[in-house]
Amino acid sequence: MDEKKQSAPLLEPLTTAQEIEQAIEAILFAAGYPMRYDKIAEVLGLNAKDVRTMVKSIAAHYEQEDTHHGIRLLLYPTTCQFTTDERYAPYIREALGIRRGGNLSASSMEVLAVVAYNQPVTRSFIELVRGVDSSYAVGSLLDKGLIEAAGRLDAPGRPMLYVTTDKFLRVFGLRSLDELPETEALSVAAAQAEQTESAGAEKDAEGVENVEAFEATATKDYTEAVDPEESGLIFESGVSEETAPEDVGGEG
Prior knowledge:
Blueprint: H1 17-31, E1 35-36, H2 37-44, H3 48-63, E2 71-75, E3 79-84, H4 89-96, H5 106-118, E4 121-122, H6 123-130, H7 135-144, E5 147-152, E6 160-164, H8 166-171, H9 189-193, H10 211-215
Antiparallel strand pairs: 1-3, 2-3, 4-6, 5-6
């Protein structure tokens, strides 16, 4: 006999916009990691569009100069999250006894720049641009959740395509890819051929942007983002009860 699924307890409906916004604020504060608009909407009996509109209103309140908050609310395409103001990261570390997190290696930063400015891209494209094998750096960035697979290129071998993630935006303090700094494009004549993967597939190679300008957008210390499965510290996302993970290093 199949067991009947227990239905979720009914919640008392919130009747005013103020109550709903306060409930959203409480949910995000308690979560400590990015929450999906549709999940919040499901709990509150709203649609995701209305939740996003209310979240934008809450975020605007925290950005007003006369409110003087040490936290802010970041909005992403499908999620939102309360974060601490990065200016107070040293005080957070000192108060909670948390050491600095590890930095990304130069090779990882280069790969991340190529992906960020040219996505979606294949590993072959990355290696054509950099001129060196990038398998370790790509794997490391995948493990850290800064890039992710986003399908395959319609070409011989069907190589994997990579894009940056919402976590990438959080770590670098960006709301969207539109906030990436404008930089002088470098020549990518060698990359346009994409001889090892495309074999005639149409793909515009718009070029690799200046990596140094990209690196300038990064926080000085890379640390892991907080989510239900993680216990490290990221300044933008608050802190956990445990100390930050070991320094990231040794990438070739």
